[in-house]
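Check the record.
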Amino acid sequence: MVNSAEVAEISARVGRPPVSVFYRALMQLGLVVLDGTKDAAHMRDDVDALSFVLDSRDVAVVDGLLR
């Protein structure tokens, strides 16, 4: 799902990594995101999800991928 064309399009439009877009949408849907990584770059992308908000249409696109 993180690598879907839909997430890639949102990512390109908002200028954020796909994983940040995906995690941000999950958080806006009220879901808890747990990630375990030791890679510093991946950690930065994960934390980046806290620094922006997606519009409701983008969140709905990710929600649709989950169903």
Remarks:
- The mean pLDDT is 95.
- Residues 5-66 form one domain.
- The chain has four helices and no strands.
